[in-house]
Amino acid sequence: MEATVRWTGLSGMSFLAETGSGHAVLMDGAPDGGGRNLAPRPMEMVLLGTGGCSAYDVVLILRKSKQDIRGCEVKLTAERADTEPKVFTKINFHFVVRGRQLKPSLVERAIKLSHEKYCSASIMLEKTAEMTHSYEIIEDLDLPSEHQSAD
Predict the structure, then answer these.
(1) From CA 92, how far away is CA 80, in angstroms rounded?
(2) Rounded CA gap, 131 and 3, in Å?
(3) CA nearest to 58, candidates 18, 5, 98
(4) Residue 144 has pLDDT above 70, yes or no
(5) Residue 108, CB half-sphere, CA atoms under 13 Å: how many?
(6) Among 3-17, 65-79, 99-113, whose mean pLDDT is lowest?
(7) From CA 16, how far away is CA 94, in angstroms rounded?
């Protein structure tokens, strides 16, 4: 895996990050640190990446478990240390999973497997942060099943 992060200029604190897979994202700092609040902060990107990693796992595991999953979002709430380095000290993952007749035991299992085995980002951050997880399941009655053809 490769990435390049390039400072965009002499004024401000914006950085253009380019991934080895050919994608780009802008990052910026807070105004009190010389940034102009034009894009996410680098530590916000770490949090976003962790949420994406875990949500990806949960969807994949539930699909492999033959669950009719229609949506998944994870809301992350994090606390950081007061002094440098301001590492994450607590992170809560709250999953909102939508689908038809989802089994709570399989949703719990998917979250647990992501946290304990598959999500490299959360497993790495667990070295400094206390991780907690919660979830809710929303029954989705409005959309046709993936397995049925729509008229």
Answers:
(1) 12
(2) 27
(3) 98
(4) no
(5) 3
(6) 3-17
(7) 30
In this prediction, residue 151 carries a pLDDT of 41
In order of their start, the domains of the chain are 3-33 (no CATH), 42-139 (3.30.300.20)
Query: Residue 105: what pLDDT?
Result: 98
| Separation between Cα atoms, residue 70 and residue 80, nearest integer Å | 33
Residue entry with tokens 């969807």? 59
Q: What pLDDT, on a 0 to 100 scale, did the predictor assign at position 85?
A: 95
Partners of residue 25 on adjacent β-strands: 17
Residues 6+ apart with CB under 8 A from 64: none
pLDDT given at position 11: 75
- 96, 135 in Cβ contact below 8 A? yes
Instruction: Tell me phi and psi for residue 92, to 5 degrees.
Output: -110, 130
Distance CA 62, CA 68 (A): 8
- Three-class DSSP category at 141: coil
pLDDT one-digit tens code per residue, 92-141: 999 999 999 999 999 999 999 999 999 999 999 999 999 999 999 999 88
Torsion region of 22: left, alpha or beta (phi above 0 gives left; psi -120 to 50 gives alpha): left
